[in-house]
């Protein structure tokens, strides 16, 4: 089978998420890094792309140059990953979709609900895939939980509780460091800080595992470091369409917590628990029974958990391979083959609607607000 050509925008040298995309996209032999505009500094971007093996004429200085260059080629890239800072996602993703490229966009997909709706419309009109990198949903044992919920193994889900709370911005003495400060500055980050950055991963996870969507929410936002305009801590209560009660805590000042992303799902006949720092295990407790630890790679897991697990039982299998699972399904989708769940532009749009609903709710002292995008009401 021929490899697909892949291009990347952002994710340059020293970036946080760039390496996970490069490892993930190339892990299974589906994609070749054929083009890139990797850095906001054109020369650095060109030089780094070439060091990664990109031909000089496809190591671009910026994304507009890449769009023009790739659109004119017969062997144009099949997929473009957008891994730049948040405020640039919309413009870049829209331009590539309109020019007929498939896109994998980092989260948050856009800054506003209107932009999110436009991406959904543009992708549909162009007949192209716009996926969003909710990569935690691609861990094998997250797929296991989803399959168990869907099969009714814990009964109707009453309650989902999730947190994405770390402590890496908890040092008030470091709050003015430019790499931290922009995240809480509305001019750079938009309407929300921590909730838009990490909370939406947790909210997407709740929807993904429960197989349901958020209908309404009530939020309490706090800027615990006073110089911050946007929230560094949020508690969000929500209700799903099917009536499931949801609780979500996200924070960047929870000193001592590292990645701090976990989810618990409580049904009528059992409960499930998963944490990103122990991604190979799901804790399952049947009502009235003992807690069992389910291990990635063991016999008897769901088809999806088995399909997306590559390394033998008890060997660590981490974040870049979860990203790789997104690329596996993207490659299959691009080739028109059968594939598993792919987080899409619709999910990116739902997240943006939830962010704006949470901001409105927090400003109104926790009033309950419709969290659905107008397009889906
Ligand atoms: P970063 O600041 O570490 O790196 C950003 C990279 O993009 C740098 O190489 C920079 O030179 C480049 N860049 C900036 N503007 C550009 C432009 N106009 N054209 C080309 N390149 C440009 O940022 P980080 O943490 O890697 O985040 C990037 C995106 O990935 C963000 O949207 C973030 O929310 C998302 N992210 C997602 C994660 C996930 O779990 N899915 C985890 C971490 C980040």
Q: In what range is the share of β-strand residues?
A: 15-25%
Strand order of the largest sheet: 13-12-11-10-6-9-8-7-14
User: How large, in whole angstroms, is the Cα Rg?
Assistant: 20 Å
Bound molecules: 1,4-dihydronicotinamide adenine dinucleotide
Q: What is the tally of beta strands?
A: 14
Classify the secondary structure makeup into a structural class: alpha/beta
User: Uncertain segments of ≥5 residues (pLDDT<50)?
Assistant: none
Architecture per CATH nomenclature, i.e. the level-2 architecture of the largest domain: 2-Layer Sandwich
- The total number of structural domains is 2
Specify the helix fraction band. 25-40%
CATH fold naming of the largest domain: Dihydrodipicolinate Reductase, domain 2
Multimerization status: single chain
Tertiary shape: globular
InterPro entries: Gfo/Idh/MocA-like_OxRdtase_N (IPR000683), Gfo/Idh/MocA_oxidoreduct (IPR051317), GFO_IDH_MocA-like_dom (IPR055170)
Domain Gfo/Idh/MocA-like oxidoreductase N-terminal: 4-134
Domain GFO/IDH/MocA-like oxidoreductase: 142-272
Protein name: Gfo/Idh/MocA family oxidoreductase
Describe the fold and architecture.
The protein is of the alpha/beta class. It folds into 2 domains: about 5-135, Rossmann fold (3-Layer(aba) Sandwich); about 140-310 and about 345-365, 2-Layer Sandwich (Dihydrodipicolinate Reductase, domain 2). The protein has helices spanning about 20-25, 40-50, 65-70, 90-100, 115-125, 140-150, 180, 185-190, 195-210, 305, 320-335, 345-365, and strands spanning about 5-10, 30-35, 80-85, 100-105, 130, 155-165, 215-220, 235-240, 245-250, 260-265, 270-275, 280-285, 290-295, 370. Pfam families: GFO_IDH_MocA, GFO_IDH_MocA_C3. This is Gfo/Idh/MocA family oxidoreductase.
